[in-house]
Amino acid sequence: ETHSLEERFQAYVDAENKVEPKDWMPEKYRKTLIRQISQHAHSEVVGMLPEANWITRAPSLRSKLILLAKVQDEAGHGLYLYSAAETLGADREDMIKDLLSGKAKYSSIFNYPTISWADMGAIGWLVDGAAIANQVMLCRTSYGPYARAMVRICKEESFHQRQGYEIMMQLARGSEEQKAMAQDALNRWWWPSIMMFGPRDEDSPNSAQSMKWKIKRKSNDELRQEFIDKTVPQAEFIGLTIPDPDLKWNEEKGQYDYGEINWEEFYQVIKGNGPCNAQRLAARQKAYDDGKWIREAANAYAEKESKRKAE
Ligand code: FAQ
């Protein structure tokens, strides 16, 4: 056999096999997955903050219960994802330190403020909608533990998307003021939501290799297009206007053409200069510091237990 390990790995992935934690894999495959999965985990956990801002001010008991359940689901998603990254040999403590130091990224979208109740609608509808488009593809990613985590996460995200759309629909069908709130939230969240898919394909340094290894199965631009095509009719249905004057149906292509994204804003936000970056990291740092005593207690207990068992 003259094939190298790398070639055999590629052939294995090309044949649609799943890579499992103990299988041989190229070091760069492992590193790419740790990067992506840990950043995905951080996004889920940081992503709890913008919505947590409204739990105490939800307009009814029902909406409060639903929002609470959704935010709790996001904590769960973060936990599955940190565990998936651990199967690749990543250390949880290191991942958290990289988040807090600003070395690891998390989704740009969570650096925008939530200034009205309508933002809870816009986040569920648009942000979870974008997350689903991306994650449905990731259910078929080549790394087994990540793919399996995505299946459950997608089911929960569909519930989140519907709860957000329901809030938007209620507001859009309410008083003039409520309708204006919904439109304002759509105006503020639309562009950041379509930035979530990442840079244009030609400016995406990781895409080519990740597509080859079947970590990613659709490109950033393909997913962005799918999301736009699915979402525009939903906005029309509830009588809201997408804030993009260049948006129009392209009969020939069978999809929407859309306006230029403000890439300068995107890169500023991922560099740490978005409206809420500092606030989000400060909140995570505080949670980390406040949790120190419980981590210490859990470790001391685990040590005591293992000593007791060894005796
Ligand atoms: N924000 O070469 P590419 C959720 C970075 S959903 C920040 O294209 P790649 C659910 C990228 O990391 C959100 N950074 O990179 C929820 C790379 O930098 P690096 C989370 C971004 O990896 C809903 C550089 O730009 N979902 O949390 C962004 O091939 C509601 C170059 O980009 C996931 O993470 C961005 N938007 O493709 C929770 C999905 N876009 O790492 C609460 C999994 C790009 O080299 C409430 N991730 N960058 O320093 C992925 O599918 C991919 O990583 C992409 C980026 C598509 C995000």
UniProtKB/TrEMBL annotation:
One of its GO terms (molecular function) is phenylacetyl-CoA 1,2-epoxidase activity. Gene3D superfamilies: 1.20.1260.10. InterPro entries: Aromatic_CoA_ox/epox (IPR052703), Ferritin-like (IPR012347), Ferritin-like_SF (IPR009078), PaaA (IPR011881), PaaA_PaaC (IPR007814). It is an enzyme of class 1 (oxidoreductase). The keyword Oxidoreductase applies. It holds the Pfam family PaaA_PaaC. Keywords: Oxidoreductase. Its EC number is 1.14.13.149. GO terms for biological process: phenylacetate catabolic process. GO terms for cellular component: cytosol. It comes from the Bacteria. The keyword Oxidoreductase applies. This is 1,2-phenylacetyl-CoA epoxidase subunit A. It comes from Phaeocystidibacter marisrubri. The gene is paaA.
